[in-house]
Write a structure and sequence with these properties.
Strand content: 15-25%
Bound molecules: ligand EPZ
Number of helices: 14
Radius of gyration: 21 Å
Shape: globular
Structural class: alpha/beta
Helix content: 25-40%
Oligomer: single chain
Distance between the termini: 20 Å
CATH architecture of the largest domain: Alpha-beta prism
């Protein structure tokens, strides 16, 4: 298992480039299941979750080519023949987003068998709303031996009102509805940019979708979809992580290849805490030379403050003067990073869904443990301002969603290196054995 060794104290200076959004690339790859023709995706990040999705699609008989060299971030997926419309427990337990194949498979093949993901490090995260939605479109769904089995001759358009806003639930239903007979109206949808990006791709494939990015999406079902080429949107969470790192270290950092229109809640928060920013249409510069002021955060669905930025914001809050109250509204158990930050000297109290952060406290290096993707990123941020050498264990979490983060950070002045550790087989135990991780 690899670890990061980080020596804190350097302000981040220069330009850092954002990769394509993992959470947009994953549904886009699942969308390729809806057609026999090739789907070409550009700006696909080279992260572990993408490799997991490649395995998932390949296991069903899809041809998946991940580009190399100049075409490094291009993925071509061709699902001409699908041998087995199934997502096994082995893959779903390592990546929950695997359940995104449920809707496309039942829509294209009339049958799907997908493992239930089970518990997760950040919350219960059921997929009942995906199942209920597909039933509203006429799918017959049963559950046996930990698997969801869905079947339908052809899905029928209908109205689905999500009881709760769900990102991948909206995406799953959106994909299913493209091949359903007649009109589907999805209500109380997630408005995340990744949903709108998926709809863009589906429309390029011949779907008829209106309203993606708003709470109501209308889909007129078509008989068939065809191949398409699509560029995945920039990763707004990676961009936010770098902006917070620039602010926290008192640096002057230009975060390039991002979309500032996806970062509104964070940019407003940076303004509130006293950090200066300036942006063009595809970059944000953060100038962190002012003292930081405390500011509260409440996580919400887009366009509110994202839960996926909460942990990284907490690292910043430890360095702000005053008390910041961080309320996590989306997941029940997403404060694991707080306890690690406390070990580094932060003053954080957890009261139910609220974390009370009292700053500013000097942080000192410690050996810490990453528990999920964003928690790992927050520990990297904390380590960048800690005195001494922090060792972050289990960085495989970060490799799931951040492309070469240590190389990118080193390029702007961070002292960070990766060390590998070869352990005897018996000693290698994943952080949460039996739990699927985030995403
Ligand atoms: C997506 O997960 C993201 N993953 C997550 O990113 C992100 O944290 C989350 O949305 C919230 O923004 C991908 O896009 C691949 P939800 P998703 O369904 O879709 C409850 C990261 O670090 N719910 O919007 O699984 C659920 O328990 C990850 O990149 C149900 O009750 O999240 C949660 O409380 C982590 N029943 C809330 O809704 C359902 O059927 C929102 O979850 C579905 C969800």
């Amino acid at each position: 298992m690899d670890k990061f060794v980080i020596r804190g104290g350097n302000p981040l200076l220069g330009t850092i480039r954002v990769s394509g959004a993992k959470n947009a690339a994953l549904p886009a790859m699942a969308a390729a299941l809806l057609t026999e023709e090739p789907v070409i995706l550009e700006n696909v990040p080279q992260v572990r979750d993408i490799e997991t999705e490649r395995k998932l699609l390949a296991a069903m008989g899809a041809e998946v080519e991940l580009g190399f060299g100049r075409a490094q971030h291009r993925t071509t997926i061709c699902c001409r023949k699908l041998a087995a419309p199934e997502a096994s427990y082995e893959l779903v337990k390592t990546m929950r987003a695997s359940t995104l194949v449920l809707g496309p498979l039942v829509a294209r093949c009339g049958t799907a068998r997908v493992s239930l993901p089970g518990g997760c490090a950040i919350g219960a995260r059921p997929i009942d709303l995906h199942i209920k939605g597909l039933e509203r479109l006429g799918a017959k769904i049963t559950q046996h031996h930990g698997y969801v089995e869905a079947s339908a001759n052809r899905l029928k358009g209908g109205e689905v009102v999500f009881d709760k806003i769900t990102v991948t639930g909206t995406e799953d239903l959106l994909m299913a509805a493209t091949l359903a007979e007649g009109e589907t109206i999805l209500q109380n949808c997630a408005r995340e940019p990744e949903v709108a990006d998926l709809a863009d791709l589906l429309n390029k494939m011949g779907a008829q979708i209106e309203g993606a990015g708003t709470p109501t999406i209308r889909v007129e079902g078509v008989e068939k979809l065809h191949g398409a080429k699509h560029r995945v949107i920039p990763d707004r969470i990676e961009a936010a992580t770098f902006l917070l790192a620039g602010a926290l270290t008192g640096g002057d950092l230009n975060v390039s290849a991002c979309d500032p229109s996806h970062l509104g809640a964070l940019l407003q928060k940076l303004d509130e805490v006293g950090v200066k920013t300036a942006h063009t249409s595809e970059s944000v510069r953060v100038m962190g030379d002012n003292p930081l002021r405390a500011a509260d955060v409440i996580t919400e669905e887009f366009p509110g403050f994202p839960t996926d930025m909460q942990a990284q914001y907490m690292a910043l809050a430890t360095q702000a003067e005053g008390t910041s109250i961080i309320t996590e509204n989306i997941f029940e158990n997403r404060f694991m990073h707080a306890l690690e930050m406390v070990r580094m000297g932060a003053n954080i109290k957890i009261e139910g869904s609220r974390a009370i952060v009292r700053g500013k406290t000097p942080l000192s290096a410690a050996a810490v443990l990453a528990s999920d993707l964003r928690a790992s990123a927050s520990l990297v941020l904390a380590a960048l301002v800690a005195e001494g050498e922090t060792i972050i264990d289990r960085v495989y979490h970060i490799d799931r969603g951040y492309e070469h983060i240590e190389e990118k950070l080193r390029g702007v002045g961070a002292q960070i290196r990766r060390i590998g550790e070869i352990l005897p087989k018996k000693a290698v135990a994943p952080a949460m054995r039996g739990y699927s991780q985030s995403t």
